[in-house]
Amino acid sequence: MSPYKSFETERLIIRPTSEEDAPFIFELLNTPKWIEYIGDRNVKSVADAKDYIRTKIQPQLEKLGYSNYTIIRKADGVKLGVCGLYDREGLEGIDIGFAFLPEHERNGYAFESANEIKRVGVEEFGISQIRAITTKDNIASQKLLERLGLQFKKMVLLPNEDEELLLYEFVAKPS
Predict the structure, then answer these.
(1) Which positions fall inside the N-acetyltransferase domain (predicted)?
(2) Is 110 exposed, middle or buried (0-12, 13-18, 19+ CB in 10 A)?
(3) Where are the domains of the chain?
(4) Domain 7-171 adopts which CATH fold?
């Protein structure tokens, strides 16, 4: 039993990604859209995926209590994608991100899970400012960020990158 919280929506289970998700993470990180829009993480096997989870995902979860979440459809237990809150190098504040297997896109899962992760970030983790980055040509991501209530702020360049990204931001109203 994980000491970290899972969350649910009407259709989805949102639980912290763990090493048992390695085959799924391997598949997701090697989809064409992941590589085009997020970047090649050099995960070339299930063993690499397990190592990626252990070295990139779990340390932030242990440090902050949140990180990457695997999105699972309640109806049949199928893993659809990931969504999470990330303390990303070179980006001030906490970043929300999401990615889904191609066959599960355009079903509202990204909005449903990201909207819950945004709520959890603000209400349960006390994050007052949530940011997001996306490429200029990822129109679907831009539309989803705007639907989530994030607004475009400026173009940014992350360390060791050569492509400028669009930076979006959401500031929670004090309760």
Answers:
(1) 12-172
(2) buried
(3) 7-171
(4) Aminopeptidase (3.40.630)
